[in-house]
Write a structure and sequence with these properties.
Elements (H helix, E strand, L loop, with lengths): L1 H17 L3 H21 L5 H26 L23 H20 L9 H12 L13 H6 L1 H16 L4 H21 L24 H23 L6 H24 L3 H13 L9 H21 L15 H19 L9 H18 L5 H12 L7 H10 L9 H7 L7 H12 L6 E8 L2 E6 L9 H9 L6 E8 L6 E2 L11 E4 L6 H4 L29 H4 L13 H4 L5 E4 L4 E3 L9 E2 L4 H4 L17 E9 L14 H9 L7 E7 L2 E7 L7 E7 L5 H10 L14 E7 L8 H6 L3 E5 L17 E2 L7 H10 L1 H21 L2 H18 L13
Parallel strand pairs: 3-7, 4-6, 7-8, 9-12, 9-13, 13-14, 14-15
Antiparallel strand pairs: 1-2, 1-3, 5-6, 10-11
Helix pairs in contact: 2-10, 2-11, 3-9, 3-10, 4-8, 4-9, 5-7, 5-8, 5-11, 7-12, 11-12, 16-29, 27-28
Length: 858
């Protein structure tokens, strides 16, 4: 029987050789590589499971069609040198059900991990694992006797060569995240088990470990039962996900393309494995994975180069693993174009962009805005009052009434502590002014009424004595977010007797909506707008808020149509920007928004232009160590990466399925990761003329941006975002210091990390619609770089600051100015000075003997 089979095999191989079947080996290898590239290029977490299910539905049909064609043509497609492994009596048996289920489960596990986590960092380790496994399955696959070490022979060695390539590939793919590495081992182990069971053992070991049930599987012979099991498992997973998060959003075309490509990849890979081993499948998979990595999205030039190098090494190993009969294997070397063309195109695009950038820095809007802002800031500092009578007169001039009792002592305290700011406290006086329309007793009554309203999120605090002590209470909460501790820390430094009550907003979002003069009432109305569209109610009083409306001034800097922020106050005025209604989470779907409508003085950390919260410094800036700056964790400018960094959570709004794309954090990450096909605007100079041009060029290497956590979303919306965005491991709060540019934007309210970034040696890029207590002393283009809500100017802004000599110089200057100013004007004593003046105003406001004032505050 054995002699007959050997004779038939020899005849089969002779016939195959006479028909140039060796080209079919090369063909199978090339097709497996190309379809693997197609799969990796178009792969998305959204379509992973559905396309995998389609693949295993189609795969048995492909095997059946090819088998029928073989029978009709009377030809053999491959040399099948491994067929002998399946010719003994045990291997010809029907594969055991347990073997098929194990393979199916491993394939399903791998697909689920790709769909849920997208973790591929350890995938290259699959090849050396299989190489070691094949040592016991196919001893002849090892280095022959007389093996001599050289680089070429090293790559030929199945174990050492795959280990070298795997190390380089993992370096190219890695982010330092031990948890992710541990998780990414699961699909690697699963595929190792599956490929091992698909690999025939030697004829002397037909069954694994001598077991009765674990038998090698010929994927072609077992295509139908194996595919059925894989499909069942994937269908169960999809059904479970549909039950938990709703029916998945399926892109039919995407699923069809990916599913078809996976089918052909599995088919040609199986044919290649029959002539080599399943080791070649792992090496080919590594090539496909690395060759399709976008060079523009690599963090550094070195990372991009390592990625290309590792992909080329993988391709070389595929060639070495092909059998000697594959004479046309060198034709596969043309596939080097797959990683090399994008890489060199990337280099050429960057070079062209740099060479076509503005050569006259003085004409660039960034340069002009910085020059103008610095001149204005110098004037602001020169004009600060230097005597008490001057400060008193300036107060009257600005606000139309006298300062509160204790103002002279406050002025002396301010001067004694060398505050660079004396007069710029409009945020306090303008915030207090609307409440002066009611008497001091009415203020106390309305505060009490608001606190006794149901469904509020207000703390009632009392400060008294000298040094003053503060106690806060809430109907249903015990943790006051360090507010009492913050006030005690501040008031112990104030040399004045304080006796007052005030309300504190517990939530991140602001709360107070002040009605027009003719509509105000002493009875507050509290409504819960959490999770609801809030734009209409937040802009309801725009027509009557003349006092807070920012007059639009003619721009003094030519921006060539790009929305560089030329007037911060106007840019943050909601009444002038109806387009903001859909592009910020606070307006589209706030996570928790308790609106207090009425003349209720409430202290909050921040508020947009249309709201009436009285602003005070966030406790996060003073009390929370995670937001504190420690210089020993910073690095010098020259040692920082020349890019912009941000990582954070999907806070800032409650995400619902299909409605989260327009939220401000999601828009920023989508832009920085270049996930949406679009054109970008840049400024270019030709024949001495500067113009705005549209281009598809986007140097993702300048952006190290990702979400580290997905939350504040419905279950399905959370899943959609995890599938859409590339994620990062949660990093230390000091990680931004390794980049020259650090981005900061609103969350549900203010960003607590802002001061840490200002104090660092990096340059903050700030996007916000929320006013804070420091707005008058922190100037855009002097201490930080502002970014518009649309972010349309961001690609040009980042390119200028990182990729031109003039821009890099200005970036460093602004970073140093902001750092120095933070040291001068954001000391803890500066916070005390602000709070001292605020508490004096609040005591006057709630003085029971104070009558209502007839003042026009708009």
């Amino acid at each position: 029987m054995s002699q007959k089979l050997t004779s038939e095999l020899s005849e089969l191989q002779s016939t195959a050789s006479s028909r140039s079947v060796v080209d079919n080996i090369t063909w199978s290898a090339g097709a497996a590589l190309i379809f693997g590239v197609v799969v990796c290029y178009f792969a998305t977490k959204r379509s992973e499971l559905t396309s995998e299910l389609l693949c295993w539905v189609l795969l048995p049909g492909v095997f059946a069609i090819v088998k029928r064609r073989r029978n009709v043509d009377g030809s053999v497609e491959t040399l099948l040198p491994l067929v002998s492994s399946f010719t003994d009596s045990s291997a010809n048996e029907t594969p055991s059900s347990i073997s098929l289920w194990i393979i199916a489960a491993c394939i399903a596990i791998s697909s689920v991990f790709r769909a849920e986590k997208g973790i591929i960092v350890l995938f290259p380790a699959l090849a050396p694992l299989l190489a070691v496994g094949h040592r016991y399955l196919r001893p002849s696959a090892h280095a022959p006797a007389g093996y001599h070490m050289s680089f070429s022979s090293l790559l030929r060695h199945p174990i050492l060569g795959t280990i070298l390539t795997a190390i380089l590939a993992i370096v190219a793919l890695s982010e330092w995240d031990p948890i992710a590495y541990a998780l990414s081992a699961a699909p690697v182990v699963a595929l190792f088990v599956a490929y091992t069971l698909l690999t025939p053992p030697t004829s002397q070991q037909s069954r694994w470990f001598g077991g009765r049930w674990l038998v090698s599987v010929d994927i072609e012979a077992a295509a139908w039962p194996l595919s059925l099991r894989v499909a069942i498992l994937l269908a169960i997973v999809l059904s479970g996900e549909s039950y938990l998060t709703g029916l998945p959003g399926i892109d039919a075309l995407e699923t069809l393309v990916l599913g078809s490509a996976k089918t052909l990849m599995w088919y040609f890979t199986s044919q290649l494995a029959r002539n080599c081993s399943w080791l070649v499948a792992a090496v080919a998979g590594t090539f496909s994975l690395l060759a399709t990595r976008n060079p523009f999205m690599q963090q550094t030039d070195t990372r991009a180069l390592i990625t290309v190098g590792a992909s080329l090494l993988s391709l070389v190993q595929v060639l070495y693993l092909l059998p000697k009969q594959a004479k046309a294997r060198l034709t596969l070397s043309t596939l080097v174009a797959i990683p090399l063309l994008p890489y060199f195109s990337n280099l050429a695009a960057i070079h062209f962009a740099q060479s076509s950038a503005l050569t006259h820095a003085v004409k660039h809007p960034v340069e002009m805005l910085i020059r103008e802002a610095n001149a204005n800031f110098d004037g602001l500092l020169r004009n600060q009052s230097s005597t008490y009578p001057a400060a008193y007169a300036e107060y009257q001039r600005r606000y139309g009434f006298d300062p509160p009792d204790g103002f002279e002592e406050w002025y002396k305290f301010t001067r004694s502590h060398r505050s660079p700011i004396i007069d710029e406290f409009d945020m306090i006086s303008e915030g207090i002014a609307p409440f002066l329309r009611i008497s001091g007793q009415e203020v106390l009554d309305i505060m009490s009424a608001a606190y006794n309203e149901p469904d509020h999120e207000l703390w009632s605090c009392t400060t008294s004595g000298q040094p003053a002590k503060t106690e806060c209470s809430h109907h249903g909460r015990e943790n006051d977010r360090n507010n009492a501790q913050f006030f005690n820390r501040i008031t112990e430094k104030i040399p004045a007797a304080l006796n007052l009550k005030f309300l504190l907003n517990h939530l991140d979002e602001p709360t107070v909506m002040i009605p027009p003069t003719s509509a105000h009432s002493t009875k507050p109305v509290i409504t819960n707008r959490g999770g609801q569209r809030a734009w209409d109610v937040l802009t309801e009083y725009c027509s009557s808020r003349r006092g807070r409306a920012s007059p639009t001034r003619a721009p003094t800097v030519e921006t060539y149509g790009l929305p560089f922020v030329t007037d911060r106050k106007a840019a943050m005025d909601l009444c002038q920007h109806a387009e903001y209604s859909e592009i910020h989470g606070l307006f589209a779907a706030p996570e928790s928004l308790r609106l207090t409508q009425g003349l209720v003085p409430v202290l909050s950390n921040g508020a947009p232009s249309t709201m009436g919260d009285i602003l005070y410094p966030s406790t996060a800036y003073v009390e929370e160590d995670r937001f504190a700056y420690h210089s020993e964790n910073d690095v010098d400018w020259d040692e920082k990466q020349n890019n912009v960094y941000w990582a954070g959570s999907t806070t800032g709004g409650h995400a619902r399925p299909g409605e989260w794309y327009s939220l401000h954090r999601q828009r920023f990450v989508e832009l920085a990761q270049n996930l949406k096909r679009r054109t970008f605007s840049y400024l270019r100079e030709k024949d001495g003329m500067i113009s705005r041009v549209a281009s598809s060029f986007f140097n993702g290497r300048l952006y190290d941006v990702a979400f580290a956590n997905v939350l504040q979303c419905d279950a399905r919306a959370c899943k959609e975002q995890r599938q859409y965005f590339a994620s990062k491991p949660w990093a230390s709060g000091d990680r931004p210091f390794r980049s020259r540019l650090v981005f900061d934007l609103d969350g549900n309210g203010i960003s607590g990390r802002y001061y840490k970034l200002l104090a660092s040696k990096s340059l903050p890029l700030k996007q916000t619609i929320i006013h804070e207590w420091h707005d008058e002393r922190l100037l855009p283009w002097v201490h930080y770089i502002p970014v518009s809500q649309s972010m349309e100017e961001l690609p040009e802004l980042v390119f200028y600051l990182t990729s031109t000599e003039a821009g890099r110089r200005r970036a460093r200057e602004v970073a140093e100015q902001g750092r120095q100013w933070f040291t001068d004007a954001f000391r803890e004593i500066d916070v005390v000075i602000y709070m001292y003046r605020l508490l004096l105003e609040l005591m006057r406001l709630q003085d029971p003997d104070r009558p209502a004032w007839q003042i026009d505050v708009g």
